[in-house]
Design a protein that fits this description.
The protein is an all-alpha fold and 367 residues long. The chain is 66% helix and 0% strand. The protein starts with 20 loop residues before the first helix and ends in a 6-residue tail after the last helix.
Length: 367
């Protein structure tokens, strides 16, 4: 009987580091020769562009509201145009001495939107809070009461109008989209056909056409002497347009819910609406959070199209502020960068909130 002989294992190299910045660079920027070549080319372009952009935007920029200094040879970005025209860009044609009113009204509305995104405020009194804030908003903006000067809606503009159109259209379009999505899956032919025609008709035309019809064609069908404010017509047009797109997003989520869920609900004796409210919709909406938020962001940016009906929201107010003054007209690039930053702040905030909602709804899958 031979004794077992111990054979030591030859030494092996230490494993490569799989975490940290060095490992990330090796895995993502220097994985192979193609990736390394792309990294060198893109890095070289960035090293060439970034110094020039910083030189134009910061080092040689003109910060004082002096258009003559902005036109000197070698001058960079003229941020003085923002210092000179920011009130017109933010508040549009609203009377200058009354611009504290849209400032307060917009602050209240933005605060309400932020509060509505916090779980602690998801109470039964939240709709009443919305009603109260909107009442205060329209009272401040329109006036003609409590000693406030009357300001017609065609003089509203800038950021307050953008936030108003976006927030009200999104809030109003969601329940409409929910009903339309359920209607498209209904077993009743009349309801299903009506919802299908609505969605296909709205999605078949651009938003500009919808706004044009709501602003110029719709009044022609109204009775003699009856006029609806252009702001309301535009708001209805954007709401119906956003609801059609959102309905398809929600319908995709409804189709993704397994049929066994509804069969189990029927076995328990739940009615149709109980099944949808307690079982189907929570699962469907959780699956399409990115799509819903994408629709929200798209609608927020689409409010810039209301300029065609003479409502000067943020983009229109910027064009109005610069095109009406020949001294500052050459510096529209700086104006567009300014409003682009405003749009980015709002859209990025909505995107981050969407990621937070996704994490919350996915906690049940981690159990």
């Amino acid at each position: 009987m031979t004794a077992n002989t111990f054979l030591p294992i030859a030494p092996r190299p230490a494993p490569n580091q799989s975490a940290g910045p060095v490992a990330w660079v090796k895995a993502n920027l220097l994985a192979d020769w193609k990736t390394s070549l792309a990294t060198v080319v893109v890095g070289g372009l960035l090293l060439w562009f970034i110094p020039q952009i910083l030189n134009w935007a910061l080092i040689k920029a003109v910060w004082q509201p002096n258009y003559e200094a902005c036109r000197l040879d070698g001058a960079g970005a003229c941020w003085g145009v923002i210092a000179e025209k920011y009130r017109v860009i933010i508040f549009g044609r609203y009377p200058f001495e009354q611009q504290w009113r849209p400032l307060v009204a917009t602050t209240l509305l933005v605060g309400l939107l932020i509060a509505s995104c916090v779980r602690a405020f998801w109470k039964a009194w939240l709709p009443l809070l919305w009603l109260a804030v909107l009442t205060v908003f329209f009272t401040l903006m329109y006036g003609n009461t409590l000693g406030l000067i009357k300001v017609e809606t065609d003089r509203w503009g800038g950021l307050p109008l953008t936030i108003l159109l976006a927030s009200l259209s999104l809030v109003a379009s969601f329940p409409i989209a929910l009903l339309v999505a359920l209607g498209r899956r209904s077993k009743l032919p009349a309801i299903r056909s009506f919802c299908t025609i609505y969605v296909e008709l709205i999605r078949g035309v651009p938003l500009i056409s919808v706004l044009f019809m709501a602003s110029f064609m719709f009044p022609l069908f109204m009775p003699q002497g009856l006029q609806i404010d252009v702001l309301i017509r535009v708001l209805v047009g954007i709401t119906l347009f956003a609801a059609a797109y959102m309905a398809e997003v929600i319908r995709g989520g409804l189709q993704a819910v397994p049929k066994g869920q509804t069969e189990a609900a029927a076995t328990l004796g739940l009615s149709y609406w109980q099944t949808q409210r307690k079982i189907v919709l929570p699962q469907a909406l959780a699956m399409v959070v990115p799509g819903i938020m994408n629709n929200f962001i798209s609608t927020f940016k689409d409010t810039s199209l209301v300029t065609i009906v003479s409502l000067y929201e943020l983009t229109g107010a910027m064009s109005l502020a610069l095109n009406s003054d020949a001294n500052w007209r050459p510096f529209t690039i700086e104006g567009y960068i300014f409003i682009a930053l405003i749009y980015f702040v709002f859209c990025f905030s909505m995107s981050r909130y969407s990621h937070w909602v996704e994490k919350q709804v996915n906690k049940s899958k981690l159990r």
